[in-house]
Amino acid sequence: MAFNKVIGQNLAITILRKQLESDRLSHAYLFLGEQGVGKDIAAFEFAKAINCQEKNTDACDQCISCRKADNQNHPDIIEIKPDGKWIKIDQIRQLQREILYKPYESRWKIYLIHQADCLNLEAANSLLKILEEPPRYAIIILVLDSIENILPTILSRCQLVRFRLLPDELIKQELISNYKLSMEKSQLITSLAAGRYKTAVQLVEDEERLAEREEMIELILSLKNSEQVIVFESAERLLEYAAKISQTLELFLLWYRDLLLVKLNQLESLVNADYRDKLTEEAERYSVEEIEEIIRIVQNTNNVIKKYNVNLQLTLEVMLLKLSKLGR
Ligand SMILES: [Zn+2]
Q1: How many other C-beta atoms can be found within 10 angstroms of the C-beta atom of residue 78?
Q2: How much is the CA Rg of the chain, to the nearest whole Å?
Q3: Backbone phi, then psi, for 70, in 5-degree steps?
Q4: For residue 275, how many other CB atoms are within 10 A of its CB?
Q5: pLDDT tens, position by position, 24-47
Q6: 16 Cα–ligand 1 center, Å
Q7: CA 96 to CA 88: how far, in whole Å?
Q8: Terminal CA-to-CA distance of the chain, rounded, Å?
Q9: Which of 25, 177, 199, 327 could disulfide-pair with 36, CB 3.0 to 4.6 Å?
């Protein structure tokens, strides 16, 4: 049934089922967890179950209400997503007006706010006003990646439901049974997905990301004692991934963590297991301390890029220059 579309997350689903069973629903929920762990699907299925005509602890997927929701035309389940980078004040003002009208055909009128991390301050303050005095038939579900991105005053008015990163073993098994992947490929994708099933599925469906991994490995290998001109060219290539540079730098970290694993003789845990020979060869060039130093440099670069409005090209050039000087 419907909650079955969510992989893992037994604790969160149990909490939601109990809510449905008790019939003491809260007016506001906050679904919190990292990107790609299943909270958007869970929020949608929860909304369906709330308005399902079978009134069970899960959506039936068969009644008119469930079917309307699945066809994206349920008048009492309304989804809000960022318009561009932000959820704008106009979107929340519209909610503020429309929430005053009773549900058309269901008991509850439910608003799903996806990526609530993107509420700008003005919009968040308007939303807070609604949460302070919600109509008795209204339920608002906020879906959020990071608790740092929401006003504490909003948080305090929501019932929190946490979604965890998934165990690697579970993701691997799901990939093998749903996509018939080989052991090696499912291992690789599971490692790249780092606990996020949705990300794993995207990797299966998006060969580009795997191609990107190969390009980054090639780039890393070309840094070996390289001249400055190569470093600058490499920075240019990295800039092509500017929009998701953080994910791209993750590929660097996975490579260097693999080098550490080789040093520690833990070859069975390698992410880039298909590069085992190359990794073994490369590990010879570095001391453990040097690899740790590289990992620190990449992590710091990633943090700086995330937190501050830096000159990306320059920051990447500095990082690559440092990397090219380490190792023999
Ligand atoms: Zn139903």
Answers
A1: 17
A2: 23
A3: -65, -30
A4: 19
A5: 899 999 999 988 899 999 999 999
A6: 16
A7: 13
A8: 57
A9: 199
pLDDT tens by residue, 201-245 = 888 887 787 888 899 999 999 988 778 888 899 999 999 998 889
CA 65 to ligand 1 centroid distance, Å? 6
Torsional sign, CA 302, 306, 308, 312: positive
Question: SS3 for 232?
Answer: helix
203: Cα within 13 Å, side-chain hemisphere: 26
Q: From ligand 1's centre to the CA of 139, what distance in Å? A: 18
**Ligand 1 centroid – CA 263 distance (Å):** 55
Q: How far away, in angstroms, is 1 Cα from ligand 1 center?
A: 10
The 3-state DSSP class for residue 31 equals: strand
Cα distance between residue 124 and residue 92, in whole Å: 8
Q: How far is the CA of 56 from the centre of ligand 1 (A)?
A: 8
The rounded Å distance from CA 64 to ligand 1 centre is 7
Cβ neighbors of 219 (< 8 A, separation 6 or more) are 234, 237, 238
Q: 3: CA distance to ligand 1 center in Å?
A: 12
Ordered alpha helix ranges (H), the chain? 10-22, 39-51, 64-70, 89-98, 121-132, 152-155, 168-179, 183-193, 197-205, 207-222, 228-239, 245-263, 276-283, 288-307, 312-325
